[in-house]
Amino acid sequence: MWRRSTATGALLALCAASPAAAQIDAHVVATTSDNAQGNCDAIDVDPPWTVAPNLEPVGIRSRVRYFDDLIYVVNPATDDIQVIDPVSFDTVRTLRMGRDTSPEDILVVSPSRAYVSLYDSTTLAIIDPGNGAPRGSVDLSGFADADGLPEMSMMARDGGRLFVQIQRLDRMSSNPVPPSWLAVIDLDTESLVDLDPGTPGPQGIPLIGAVPSFRMHVDVRERRLFVSTPGPRLNTSGGIEEIDLETLQSLGFILSEAEVSADVGGFVMTSVDSGYALSHTDIVASSHHFPFDRSTGQGGEVLLTYGFIETLAVDPGTEQLFFPDPFSVPHGEHVGDAATGRLLTR
User: What is the residue-averaged pLDDT of the chain?
Assistant: First the structure.
């Protein structure tokens, strides 16, 4: 079975600032992993970007979210989610999601309600993030391919709607089964929205690309959602796809893999027309960081590093771009100017 995973080294996962808690300095949280054990680092957002390394053990191939002054580390390998205090960096509780469920993402909507996407399950879990108690579920089995699983991944919220990536990977052939979808959940009714009631089965937003992956970006003002659809490896049929949040339809690629001539990965948007993205190659396992624009396409490469980097982050307060380099020792986190792409660190 093929699925995307994070590589050894630093994975930039979260830009966390807490105006509500004055004792918490603004910092970026990154997870590191040597494929046996993971850990958390904290990086100051102000120069000289001091790193506090190895603050709390976490799982390997973890992802980080930040809600209501708490850090949530999603650990697919151990089927749980760590809740970490951003002041002490102690794990205050662990949310167990069930054996062999492989949680991919969490989205907290209130102190008593959170949604968890489970890669190895047919149901989207609804839990109490305060104690992990089940609060219900949403059946996504109607999106499954022949192996019986929809392969749900990352999530994003727009007001009363939750968007869930549906990859539809055939685990026998390791190929995606078209189409891939964005499932749409009504948060008021906690039910699946069928966007085409006249067609049998649940219908979400069909995507032009395949295997939606990585963190999505919601532009509330421009009513757009952006999602990376890299498709199979070494197949440049995907890209960064634009979704109209009013019509709930794909508008096509804002950046295509054909333009990049490589697999597109994680990204951040700095406006509705431009942002920064990562691409990956397999001949020599590497990650390439570059700016892009709707009208001009890919810009010049900012950084090349080896290994698989999944996430970039922008701190809007300082207008800085943070991205990891697992082969920069120790604890390599680069900082750039989000407006120009110019590196601020060596």
Answer: 88
